[in-house]
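Case study 2.
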Amino acid sequence: METNTQDRITLKNLKVADFASEETLCFTATVLFDGKPVATASNDGHGGSTRLLALKGQRDRLSEAEAFAASLPPDVSEHVDPNDNACRFTIDMTLDYLVDGLANTMHADRKLRSAFNRDIGNKVLFIKDGKLLFLKGIKLKAIVDRKAYFAALRSRRAQPIVILAELAPDEAFGLWKQHVLGDKPD
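Prediction:
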């Protein structure tokens, strides 16, 4: 599901129980509408829908959020519609469906960021010839004079390299993600 086409409904305080997630993601979160908390969301991870509970005094705002979600375009899946082989299977947008998608996206992003942080902290990562590589047995944290080490590393290479530890964190993450995921956006 494409959840980033809107920015009025967001989540905070997402807590996921991977061990309890079976058919759906087991989570709790606070639902924000236009940046203000309106509901709590929870899913027990057994395949049922997400429950939304309005926060005190926010029932009308939750209704507005539900109306906004319903006004969004339907989610068009990659799968063929079982009722019409010429069409893709579509799901009308609802707030609980949108919240599920946001929670899944947020959780996947967190897991990806954690993997990046492990890699960037433990390896000397660099890009050479369009490939993400690392130096086996060398821990980035153990290098005292990184500037000198990186200069020596560059001098030993015939072709230019991009060392991720020298980049801004978001730029390094973007390059790492591009190479780890390939053409897949998520």
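The mean pLDDT is 89.
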